[in-house]
Amino acid sequence: MRIISSPQLPPANGHYSQCIEHNGLLYLSGQLPLHPVTKAIPPTIQEQTQLVLSNIETILNASGVTKNQVIQARLYIANIELWTEINHQYMLFFEEHKPVRSIIPVPSLHFGCLLEVEVLAQAIP
After folding, report:
1. pTM of the entire structure?
2. Domains defined along the chain, listed by start
């Protein structure tokens, strides 16, 4: 098992790791739409989705893999009405690659964020 973090992202605020590689798989902790330096949360779901996916890509790249190695994504969203815009941004990010995915509506997320995303990826190219 190998713990992976990225200097481009702030360290985890709680008792968890950003990413762990184990048996050829990368397990990424849920990512909130927090700016890596300022910790600001963008106001719109479009911007929040773009930031979350960008932060995920940063962690993946620090692990030596690309977004095309993502196997599964779990998206926790604070309002099912946001699904259409989240899906659009997700499609733009992954392009032709289509990881398996779950979208789970939840009553609320930390800091009032509108979504949180966790992924499982192949660690070996």
Report:
1. 0.93
2. 2-122 (3.30.1330.40)
